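All the exercises in this workshop are built on plain-text protein records. Sequence and backbone structure share a record, each on its own labelled line. The structure tokens are whole numbers drawn from a learned vocabulary of backbone shapes. The record below serves as our worked example for the rest of this section.
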Amino acid sequence: MDLRLSKPLINTCFTLESDLEIVHGDFPASLTAPVKLSAVLQDIFEFLTAHPTESIVLSMKHEGPFSYEATDLANILLSSSCPTYFETLHRDQWFLEPRIPTLGEIRGKIVLFRRFSCDSEDIPRLGIPASWTYNTTGETSVSLLEVPMLAVQDYSELQSRADIPLKIEYIIQHVNRAAADVNENTLYLNFTTGSNLWYLACWPRRVAKHTRTPVADVFPGASGKCGIVILDFPELDRWNLVKLIIERNSQFQS
């Protein structure tokens, strides 16, 4: 799950700076009413309580019209005025260590992907450092103390329809990288998503439709883990690619 966070977009005499809202770019997630981080987290906690064998990887970063100092978001999330975030309520439903866990460790928990800065003393309690290069094609990894932790393909800003075959190539290359890597401490993230709102052919659903079959075709008969493969509109092929991903990764579960 990918959450972009902002200070409250509309301030009143009752507004707390710590009452973070969900946005996308400079725009609110909903035009009818603010979507609060606390409310989204409560929904996640309830889901995990009802489904204790599941896990949710939660990416957080700051966006919105307000500027932040480097560690502002970390300080807000760790503030004593925000017990619903990390420190008090549902503490046992977070995995906040700066390392890649096994699936057995995180069942029933949220794994935090920290896509924001924090002070060095806060690193041990603010999850996996996950700030990667924009539009990365997957060749480089994200490291902590020179230890590779994440390998990410997130080539998302397509210039035209001609970039869709290139996107497909990057997705497949990253699936193959994951399969070839025997390092169990590196987690592979492979975004099949991409868009350009100024070109109809590159709207998210159309990109998803064009990428689905070529990517699915590389799975049958292949071996090795494929990492986390992120999909838009996973139902487009009647969940076929989702089933192939689960089947491929299930042999490595712990």
